[in-house]
Model the fold of this input.
Amino acid sequence: MADLSYDFVGIKTPNPFWLASAPPTDKEYNVVRAFEAGWGGVVWKTLGEDPPVVNVSSRYGGINFNGQRMAGLNNIELITDRPLDINLEEITRVKKAWPDRAIIVSLMVPCEEEPWRYILGRVAETGADGVELNFGCPHGMSERGMGAAVGQVPEYVEMVTAWCKKHSDMSVIVKLTPNITDVRLSARAAVRGGADAVSLINTINSIVNIDLDIMAPTPTVDGKGAHGGYCGPAVKPIALNMVAEIARDPECQNIPMSGIGGISDWRDAAEFMALGCGTVQVCTAAMHHGFKIVDDMKTGLSNWMDSKGYKTIDDFRGLASTNVTDWNKLNMNYDVKALIDQDKCIKCGLCHIACEDTSHQAITAERFEGERKYEVIDEECVGCNLCQLICPVDECITMVEVENDKPYMNWNQDPRNPYSNPAE
Amino acid sequence: MVFLGKKPAQAGMIKSGLGKFEMGDIADIAAGRLSAEDLSKNFDDMYPALGASKAIIEASRCYFCYDAPCMEACPTGIDIPNFIRKIQTGNYRGSALDILSENIMGGACSRVCPTEILCEEVCVRMSQEEKPVTIGKLQRFATDWLMETGEQPFERAASTGKTVAVVGAGPAGLSAAHRLSMLGHDVEIFEALAKSGGLNEYGIAAYKLPHGIAQQEVDFILSLGGITVHNGKALGSNVSLAELNAKFDAVFVGTGLGAVRALGFENEGLAGVYNAVEYIAELRQSETKEDIAVGRKVVVIGGGNTAIDVAVQAKRLGAEDVTLVYRRGPEDMSATHHEQEYAQTNGVTIKHYAKPVSIEESGGVISGITFEYTAKDASGKLVGTGETFQQAANMVFKAIGQVFVPEPVTRSATSLEIQDGRIVVDEDRASSVPGVYAGGDCILGGEDLTVTAVQDGKLAAHAIDTYLKTAQA
Done:
């Protein structure tokens, strides 16, 4: 059976599934329930300076899709609204009771050295395994010069990271904001500051819905709304891309990563790991279904690893990141065509209308003795995958590689490219 | 109504037309077998309406097919994927309009259509998981929503000054009238019975159209304006086709079927033997069903929807045993498999391959029926086997089909061509006489479905419109 334990920058965890710094990790009661359910670790909800912040009422907004709840979730909650001493007491108690689990403490204090030095010292006394620097929170705290306001300026990221390394022996994980143009700049800054790891992504600036009756964003606080942080399954593709960008950036020097962003099951987790993450952090899925989901995550990942012959997470970690490349390195001679399995086809015609209205007019709609028949015109099919993506029947449409003897040739070598250099 | 065969005369039979039953003197036929509470439960909606959340979940199962098979299977050609998508997005008004613009009786059809042999049978989900999108229930959701608003969403075009007579206020006639009025023509409907609605009001099981839905739909249709209904005016007796043809610019005939088939026995008029059609009509007009008498042992002869409807309703009135006997096999019944199963789960016993040979009597009332077993011979022809059995009964329903009575459309100066006992029409529903159109069950090829009658009325209305604007210009 696969070994799910992991040593993440010195933080030992029985499995790679951590709860992200968020409402589920705000206090002892929740964290103990999470550990009882089997989570490998938690990132304790962000601690700040006393007096604690005050949160508003009406805090979350959700995106439903096709009858399914919470494809995306946004929140306008701030960091912990409980006094620092209470949080620290609870962290100490929980770590003592659950020594095999990972406890990382998320931190956010003003962008000055002294507050960081002070709070790092206090956290070190709890026995916590590490700290995560919250440079990502996009709402409320950023207006006060913290959170994303720091994360969006690489120089600040580097400076604060360096302070933390200077004043603490604990492992320092820098949590990156996606609300930037190029995540590599902040990741490189974290590396320069001496970070042990980065975690990403934090939530994305968002307005999830407009209530058309009251003409205000949701969540609505007394008729008004503010942008919040977006997370949940809908953000996974954005997070995967940012993870991949860091994984293949030489200047990021293979910095260890903890993946965050819409991870709901073992498969999502494995995808982040395949791009290089050693652990993953979960929030929305737990807030949607409760802590029990970790059971599927652990057994699912373990069963899949067994089926592939992977004994440890490092056996497959990062394997996909080498296959993430730039567009101009893709093989222009690779050719696939859609193939419709007529026995599986249920005659919904979606492949035809999608191709006809919006793509390449490569799927016919005919009737033979009254029977509907949809067929691919190979000469017109460019292999875009659209029909395969929308077909409601699994494996009814497959993209079949067309055998040719042409060698690998990328766009830079392609004679159709006016700026090509075939010799390259 | 006209009776074929011997007209029943005994006490306990229906008197002329739709008079009250008088059955007190027949043994074991009695009203009030069940409590008022049970009766009200038994004749309530057969299926609960979908709530908004269920409707949205169900609507999300629709793939929004291109060239959707359901749409093709709908006799009125409703754009089903489009109305379902609009339920999913909360555009209920748009959804209802998609339905009603093709089928003004979309509310009744959502309840009475045999969707299992129409739209839902061909739903692509059937190929995938043998579980169609429940199109009928979704259609009901959308049309109910609009009905509750009390809105008449359609408008009349500018008046053309033309007048059209419509004979029969059933689904075909009402559909034609509504569309003709929309197109700017003034319509007068001549209806033989006291209420409009046709079979929706008189002919369909009470639990399929409960709570006055049929009349609500009639009111909805008439609220468009431009339509006057003359109830109690029967074609052939109160008004002739020739008169209408002379007085109006065009005529639409949607009379339905006027007579029921007889068994052909000497003692068919015996107390205890009833026509299912009339019994259902009587039952439909009863508010509480407490005044509707039913036998303890009931036998229904026939294999169509009327047979099923009367059998299930007899059971729900409190009959102890209800046996439906059909001369052929289950696949030959015009009632769908779904309807047969519904009857069986309601406690009706269905016997196949037996035909009635004589009605047994005792003391002047029916005591049972003797059936002969039947079988199909090598050529597929139905033959008696010679063996018989007796089925005890104190109430027997004849439900072996209805027939069109052509005299009213053939005996006046305006005489329509008849073939196989029905009115001959072309694809525009035009009869052999210019300016006279027909639709519903009375035409050749009529399918005994509300939804096809509605389509006939709609098609005829457009053809009449073209006729009035061109031929008579």
Observations:
- The radius of gyration of chain A is 24 Å.
- The mean pLDDT of chain A is 95.
- The first strand of chain A starts at residue 6 and ends at 8.
